[in-house]
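Consider today's protein:

***
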Amino acid sequence: MKNQLLIACLFITGLIKAQCVQNNANIFSFTTNGIKYELVKEKKTWKNAANCAVSRGGKLAEIESRKEQDSIAAKLFSTAANINFSQTISFDGGGASYIWLGGNDSLEEGKWIWDGNGDGIGTAFWNGTWSTGSAVNGAYFNWGRTDPINPFTKPREPDDFQNNQDMLAMGLENWPNGNARQWNDVKGDNLLYYLIEYPVSVGLQENTNSDAISLTLLDEGEKITVRWGSNEVEQVQLFDLMGQEIVHIQNTNTISVNHLPQGIYILMVYSHQQYKTIKYIKRN
Protein backbone atom coordinates (compact mmCIF):
# COMPACT_ATOMS: atom_id res chain seq x y z
CA MET A 1 0.00 0.00 0.00
CA LYS A 2 1.25 3.43 -0.83
CA ASN A 3 2.41 5.69 2.01
CA GLN A 4 -0.19 8.29 2.81
CA LEU A 5 0.64 12.00 2.78
CA LEU A 6 -1.84 14.35 4.41
CA ILE A 7 -2.37 17.29 2.09
CA ALA A 8 -4.36 20.29 3.30
CA CYS A 9 -5.01 23.02 0.77
CA LEU A 10 -5.93 26.46 2.08
CA PHE A 11 -5.42 29.99 0.85
CA ILE A 12 -3.10 31.95 3.12
CA THR A 13 -5.83 34.46 3.83
CA GLY A 14 -7.94 31.66 5.26
CA LEU A 15 -5.16 29.89 7.11
CA ILE A 16 -6.06 29.39 10.78
CA LYS A 17 -3.17 30.44 12.96
CA ALA A 18 -1.82 28.11 15.64
CA GLN A 19 -3.73 28.13 18.88
CA CYS A 20 -0.77 29.18 21.02
CA VAL A 21 -2.48 32.58 21.38
CA GLN A 22 -5.42 32.22 23.73
CA ASN A 23 -7.33 35.30 22.61
CA ASN A 24 -6.85 37.24 19.37
CA ALA A 25 -7.97 40.37 21.22
CA ASN A 26 -4.54 40.23 22.91
CA ILE A 27 -2.74 40.80 19.59
CA PHE A 28 -1.67 44.27 18.49
CA SER A 29 -0.80 44.08 14.79
CA PHE A 30 1.09 46.74 12.89
CA THR A 31 3.18 47.18 9.76
CA THR A 32 6.24 49.38 9.51
CA ASN A 33 8.97 49.55 6.85
CA GLY A 34 6.97 47.01 4.85
CA ILE A 35 7.16 44.34 7.56
CA LYS A 36 4.24 43.00 9.58
CA TYR A 37 4.57 42.56 13.34
CA GLU A 38 2.34 41.25 16.09
CA LEU A 39 2.73 42.19 19.72
CA VAL A 40 1.19 39.31 21.65
CA LYS A 41 0.05 40.52 25.04
CA GLU A 42 0.08 37.10 26.66
CA LYS A 43 2.91 35.96 28.92
CA LYS A 44 5.31 33.23 27.87
CA THR A 45 8.88 32.13 28.49
CA TRP A 46 11.33 33.04 25.71
CA LYS A 47 11.35 29.51 24.31
CA ASN A 48 7.58 29.18 24.29
CA ALA A 49 7.25 32.61 22.71
CA ALA A 50 9.67 31.60 19.93
CA ASN A 51 7.77 28.36 19.36
CA CYS A 52 4.49 30.24 19.14
CA ALA A 53 5.98 32.75 16.70
CA VAL A 54 7.15 29.93 14.43
CA SER A 55 3.81 28.12 14.60
CA ARG A 56 2.11 31.34 13.48
CA GLY A 57 4.43 31.64 10.48
CA GLY A 58 6.89 34.16 11.91
CA LYS A 59 9.73 34.51 14.39
CA LEU A 60 10.55 36.64 17.40
CA ALA A 61 11.49 40.08 16.09
CA GLU A 62 15.10 40.66 15.03
CA ILE A 63 16.03 44.36 15.07
CA GLU A 64 19.00 45.03 12.80
CA SER A 65 18.98 48.79 12.27
CA ARG A 66 18.30 52.07 14.07
CA LYS A 67 15.45 52.75 11.65
CA GLU A 68 13.81 49.44 12.49
CA GLN A 69 14.32 50.00 16.22
CA ASP A 70 12.79 53.48 16.18
CA SER A 71 9.81 52.55 14.02
CA ILE A 72 8.97 49.49 16.15
CA ALA A 73 9.34 51.43 19.39
CA ALA A 74 7.06 54.19 18.08
CA LYS A 75 4.32 51.60 17.52
CA LEU A 76 4.83 49.83 20.84
CA PHE A 77 4.67 53.07 22.79
CA SER A 78 1.61 54.34 20.95
CA THR A 79 -1.79 54.54 22.59
CA ALA A 80 -3.06 51.88 20.20
CA ALA A 81 -0.70 49.25 21.65
CA ASN A 82 -2.46 49.54 25.02
CA ILE A 83 0.22 47.63 26.96
CA ASN A 84 -0.35 46.91 30.63
CA PHE A 85 3.24 47.25 31.84
CA SER A 86 2.48 45.57 35.16
CA GLN A 87 1.70 42.28 33.39
CA THR A 88 5.07 41.79 31.66
CA ILE A 89 7.74 42.27 34.34
CA SER A 90 11.21 40.76 34.63
CA PHE A 91 12.31 40.83 38.26
CA ASP A 92 15.91 40.03 37.36
CA GLY A 93 15.76 42.94 34.90
CA GLY A 94 15.48 45.56 37.62
CA GLY A 95 11.77 44.90 38.12
CA ALA A 96 10.91 46.74 34.90
CA SER A 97 8.55 45.64 32.15
CA TYR A 98 9.84 44.09 28.92
CA ILE A 99 8.86 42.29 25.72
CA TRP A 100 10.78 39.40 24.20
CA LEU A 101 12.90 39.91 21.08
CA GLY A 102 14.58 37.20 18.98
CA GLY A 103 18.15 37.33 20.34
CA ASN A 104 20.07 35.08 22.74
CA ASP A 105 23.48 33.83 23.78
CA SER A 106 22.19 30.52 25.11
CA LEU A 107 24.62 28.35 23.12
CA GLU A 108 27.79 30.19 24.13
CA GLU A 109 27.96 32.88 26.79
CA GLY A 110 28.62 36.30 25.36
CA LYS A 111 28.04 35.32 21.73
CA TRP A 112 24.74 37.00 20.91
CA ILE A 113 22.89 35.96 17.78
CA TRP A 114 19.58 36.75 16.14
CA ASP A 115 17.72 33.48 16.56
CA GLY A 116 14.03 34.39 16.40
CA ASN A 117 12.91 30.84 15.64
CA GLY A 118 14.89 29.34 18.51
CA ASP A 119 16.85 26.80 16.46
CA GLY A 120 20.25 27.97 17.71
CA ILE A 121 21.32 29.25 14.29
CA GLY A 122 21.47 32.92 13.42
CA THR A 123 23.44 36.05 12.62
CA ALA A 124 25.88 37.19 15.31
CA PHE A 125 25.54 40.82 16.43
CA TRP A 126 27.46 41.10 19.74
CA ASN A 127 30.38 39.42 21.50
CA GLY A 128 31.08 39.79 25.22
CA THR A 129 29.53 41.57 28.19
CA TRP A 130 28.92 45.30 28.55
CA SER A 131 32.45 45.88 29.88
CA THR A 132 34.36 43.74 27.36
CA GLY A 133 31.98 43.37 24.43
CA SER A 134 31.62 44.91 21.01
CA ALA A 135 29.37 44.70 17.97
CA VAL A 136 30.11 42.01 15.38
CA ASN A 137 31.15 43.57 12.06
CA GLY A 138 29.47 46.84 12.91
CA ALA A 139 26.09 45.23 13.63
CA TYR A 140 23.37 47.38 15.16
CA PHE A 141 22.75 47.10 18.92
CA ASN A 142 20.74 49.02 21.49
CA TRP A 143 21.89 47.68 24.84
CA GLY A 144 20.83 49.49 28.00
CA ARG A 145 22.94 52.50 28.94
CA THR A 146 22.51 55.16 31.58
CA ASP A 147 22.48 58.06 29.09
CA PRO A 148 19.27 57.70 27.02
CA ILE A 149 20.26 60.47 24.59
CA ASN A 150 23.86 59.86 23.56
CA PRO A 151 24.11 56.60 21.53
CA PHE A 152 27.90 56.58 21.99
CA THR A 153 27.67 56.20 25.77
CA LYS A 154 29.17 52.88 26.88
CA PRO A 155 26.37 50.34 27.41
CA ARG A 156 25.71 48.79 30.83
CA GLU A 157 24.15 45.68 29.37
CA PRO A 158 24.44 42.76 28.78
CA ASP A 159 25.71 41.98 32.28
CA ASP A 160 24.65 38.30 32.65
CA PHE A 161 23.39 38.99 36.17
CA GLN A 162 23.71 35.87 38.34
CA ASN A 163 25.26 34.09 35.34
CA ASN A 164 21.98 33.02 33.76
CA GLN A 165 20.62 35.90 31.68
CA ASP A 166 20.70 34.58 28.12
CA MET A 167 17.64 36.00 26.37
CA LEU A 168 17.03 39.40 24.77
CA ALA A 169 14.19 41.72 25.73
CA MET A 170 13.29 45.35 25.03
CA GLY A 171 12.61 47.48 28.07
CA LEU A 172 9.26 49.23 28.30
CA GLU A 173 10.38 51.14 31.39
CA ASN A 174 13.65 52.45 32.79
CA TRP A 175 15.75 50.11 34.94
CA PRO A 176 19.00 50.73 36.86
CA ASN A 177 21.26 50.00 33.88
CA GLY A 178 19.11 51.31 31.06
CA ASN A 179 16.09 53.13 29.77
CA ALA A 180 12.81 52.33 28.07
CA ARG A 181 13.21 51.20 24.44
CA GLN A 182 16.70 49.82 25.09
CA TRP A 183 17.70 46.15 25.30
CA ASN A 184 18.52 43.97 28.27
CA ASP A 185 19.58 40.39 28.83
CA VAL A 186 17.20 38.59 31.19
CA LYS A 187 16.41 35.04 32.24
CA GLY A 188 14.59 32.96 29.69
CA ASP A 189 12.00 31.70 32.17
CA ASN A 190 10.54 35.18 32.68
CA LEU A 191 6.90 35.34 31.57
CA LEU A 192 6.70 38.28 29.18
CA TYR A 193 4.76 39.63 26.22
CA TYR A 194 6.51 39.05 22.89
CA LEU A 195 6.91 40.58 19.44
CA ILE A 196 6.49 38.44 16.31
CA GLU A 197 7.99 39.47 12.96
CA TYR A 198 6.64 38.03 9.72
CA PRO A 199 8.42 37.42 6.39
CA VAL A 200 8.06 40.10 3.74
CA SER A 201 5.15 39.21 1.45
CA VAL A 202 5.55 38.77 -2.30
CA GLY A 203 4.58 41.90 -4.22
CA LEU A 204 2.17 40.27 -6.67
CA GLN A 205 -1.60 40.29 -6.87
CA GLU A 206 -3.27 37.24 -5.37
CA ASN A 207 -5.79 35.66 -7.71
CA THR A 208 -9.26 35.51 -6.18
CA ASN A 209 -11.24 33.88 -8.97
CA SER A 210 -13.09 30.62 -8.49
CA ASP A 211 -10.54 28.33 -10.10
CA ALA A 212 -9.62 25.72 -7.51
CA ILE A 213 -6.11 24.40 -6.93
CA SER A 214 -5.94 20.66 -6.43
CA LEU A 215 -2.89 19.06 -4.90
CA THR A 216 -2.44 15.45 -6.03
CA LEU A 217 -0.15 12.78 -4.59
CA LEU A 218 1.84 10.66 -7.06
CA ASP A 219 4.50 7.95 -6.99
CA GLU A 220 4.15 6.62 -3.46
CA GLY A 221 4.37 9.98 -1.79
CA GLU A 222 7.57 11.10 -3.49
CA LYS A 223 5.96 13.80 -5.65
CA ILE A 224 3.11 16.27 -5.53
CA THR A 225 1.43 17.82 -8.53
CA VAL A 226 -0.24 21.24 -8.47
CA ARG A 227 -3.06 22.09 -10.89
CA TRP A 228 -4.68 25.52 -11.17
CA GLY A 229 -7.89 24.81 -13.03
CA SER A 230 -7.23 25.32 -16.74
CA ASN A 231 -4.37 27.78 -16.12
CA GLU A 232 -0.85 26.89 -17.11
CA VAL A 233 1.41 26.73 -14.05
CA GLU A 234 4.51 28.80 -14.83
CA GLN A 235 6.44 28.36 -11.60
CA VAL A 236 6.06 27.02 -8.08
CA GLN A 237 7.91 27.97 -4.90
CA LEU A 238 7.83 25.96 -1.70
CA PHE A 239 8.64 27.67 1.61
CA ASP A 240 8.96 26.57 5.21
CA LEU A 241 7.05 28.51 7.86
CA MET A 242 9.97 30.89 8.41
CA GLY A 243 9.75 32.03 4.80
CA GLN A 244 12.87 30.13 3.71
CA GLU A 245 12.60 28.97 0.11
CA ILE A 246 13.10 25.20 -0.13
CA VAL A 247 12.20 24.50 -3.78
CA HIS A 248 11.76 26.75 -6.83
CA ILE A 249 10.72 25.15 -10.11
CA GLN A 250 9.67 26.59 -13.47
CA ASN A 251 7.66 25.26 -16.41
CA THR A 252 6.48 22.21 -14.50
CA ASN A 253 3.83 21.58 -11.89
CA THR A 254 5.38 18.52 -10.24
CA ILE A 255 7.57 18.79 -7.15
CA SER A 256 9.68 16.08 -5.56
CA VAL A 257 9.03 15.98 -1.81
CA ASN A 258 10.71 12.73 -0.80
CA HIS A 259 13.63 14.67 0.71
CA LEU A 260 11.47 16.91 2.88
CA PRO A 261 11.07 16.28 6.62
CA GLN A 262 7.56 16.10 7.97
CA GLY A 263 5.99 19.45 8.70
CA ILE A 264 3.96 22.32 7.31
CA TYR A 265 4.95 24.05 4.08
CA ILE A 266 3.57 26.85 1.92
CA LEU A 267 3.34 26.64 -1.87
CA MET A 268 3.14 29.74 -4.06
CA VAL A 269 1.86 28.93 -7.55
CA TYR A 270 2.30 31.48 -10.36
CA SER A 271 0.39 31.91 -13.61
CA HIS A 272 0.04 34.97 -15.87
CA GLN A 273 1.42 37.51 -13.35
CA GLN A 274 -0.84 36.22 -10.60
CA TYR A 275 -0.32 33.76 -7.78
CA LYS A 276 -2.21 31.61 -5.37
CA THR A 277 -1.00 30.21 -2.08
CA ILE A 278 -1.74 26.84 -0.56
CA LYS A 279 -0.55 24.93 2.47
CA TYR A 280 0.30 21.28 2.68
CA ILE A 281 1.26 19.11 5.62
CA LYS A 282 3.68 16.28 5.05
CA ARG A 283 3.56 13.34 7.40
CA ASN A 284 6.04 10.51 7.11
Summary: The radius of gyration is 21 Å. Helices lie at 46-55, 66-76.
